[in-house]
Amino acid sequence: MKIQIIKEKDMKEFGNSETKVKDLFISDFPDISITKVDRNSEEKTFDYDKVSDNFYYVLEGKGTCITKEKEFKLEKGDLIVIPKKTEYKNIGNIKLLAISIPKFNEDNQINKK
Fold first, then answer.
1. Domains and CATH numbers, the chain
2. DSSP string for 47-110
3. SS (HEC) of 27-40
4. Pick from 26, 92, 88, 24: which is nearest to 58 by CA?
5. pTM for the predicted model, two decimal places
6. How far apart are CA 31 and CA 79, in angstroms?
7. The CA-based dihedral angle spanning residues 81, 70, 44, 83, taken in that order and rounded to the nearest 10 degrees
8. Please, are residues 18 and 41 in contact by the beta-carbon 8 Å criterion?
9. SS3 of the chain: helix, strand, coil, percent, to 5
């Protein structure tokens, strides 16, 4: 790996009114993705990733991480660790730095309605 500077103007943003995502870094080696997630939703549909462990660092705002067992209040500076195959949902008006190892692949994301 070599030193890289990735300009924000070159980063793709996508999503909808509830969740906007901006890919910051995606790599095969190391097998990792880093994404900025701008969440503004109270949608409580559970998701889980079959393959990746996910780490969310709260950049700003307040929200809640909901699992089948518990609810965790979130605020700036918190780190959320979600092991693969864990059903969860992040809700609220919150900006997150998301790190997925191995890198995020939408085909591995399961939405539980």
1. 18-98+108-112 (2.60.120.10)
2. EEESS-EEEEEEEEEEEEEEESS-EEEEETT-EEEE-TT--EEEEEEEEEEEEEESPP-GGGEE
3. ECCCCEEEEEEEEE
4. 92
5. 0.87
6. 20
7. 30
8. yes
9. 5, 60, 35
CA of residue 11 relative to chain centroid, distance: 16
Take residue 47 and report the two structure tokens written for it: 């998701």
As a whole number of angstroms, the distance between CA 17 and CA 83 comes to: 27
The tokens describing 5, both together, are: 């500077």
The token duo for 24 is 């910051």
DSSP structure class, residue 107: G
Residue type, 25: F
Q: Is 74 helix (H, G, I), strand (E, B) or coil?
A: strand
Number of neighbours of residue 103 by Cβ within 10 angstroms? 20
pLDDT in tens, 29-81: 899 999 999 999 888 789 999 999 999 999 999 999 999 899 999 999 999 99
